[in-house]
Amino acid sequence: MQSPAHTWPDGPAVTDADTAHRAPLGHPSIDDLLARARTRLDRLVPEDAARELADGALLVDIRADLVRRAEGEIPGSLVIDRNVLEWRLDPCSAWRIEEAGDHSLRAVIMCSQGYMSSMAAASLHDLGLLRATDIVGGYEAWRAAGLPVVPGATMPGSYVATAPSPISLDPGGQRMLVDGAPVALTPLEFRLLTALLRGNGRVIPREDLRAGLGEWAGSRSRSVDLHIHRIRRKLGPRAAALLTTERGVGFRLRAAPAPADCR
Fold this sequence. Notes:
This is Winged helix-turn-helix domain-containing protein. One of its GO terms (molecular function) is DNA binding. The protein is of the alpha/beta class. It folds into 2 domains: 1-162, 3-Layer(aba) Sandwich (Oxidized Rhodanese, domain 1); 167-253, Orthogonal Bundle (Arc Repressor Mutant, subunit A). The protein has 10 helices and 12 strands. The strands form 4 sheets. It has a 4-stranded parallel sheet with strand order 4-3-5-6, sandwiched between helices. A 3-stranded antiparallel sheet has the order 7-8-9, with helices on one face. Helix 1 (30-39) crosses helix 5 and helix 7 packs across helix 9 (223-235).
């Protein structure tokens, strides 16, 4: 007789045969660890998480790329791969993000169903981020509550835009997608556009772009401007309007066209 299958949180189906073994005496099961993790968290229902996001909390989506492509994303959330989460949010880490300025950071972690996120938030508590928490029911509960979602798969390290941008990158193919159509880029153009997309609409100083490219022929000249010009030509008229030059500072890649000046 075949063992019945069970639904496994945030993972594949398992059978009774898979769960026949028990942890040695004195060792917790994963269910025990999950329960302990949640006693440390002031977990949020989706509606409360939405209010905290609007008030400035950092909503971090740790779902895999393929899952986000299939399920959708939350506008304003920051996409961070689970395997680098602690390094990105620890204020003491050399690889921390700009938002992780100190241990008072309010980070709300989200996965598909709210299991992996609880373990991740408890891990952040171990780093001193005692205000970290997660969403009860995860993304599925957020969507079921009728809260805003958008399609797509935002590049890790970037914020999800309020509407899908016509410009995205295909890291595997080292190419740009403009309204879904592939456009070839040189390696330097790809690195420049990656930096601009990670800026999430912020102005990126010219010197930061140059430094991010490292040492390369022409790196001490106006070649950054030249490559930006070439990227604009490849974008086409509509998308090119999103890549703007901020005089005397650098460049900005907007998610949507800038509002008209009505003065």
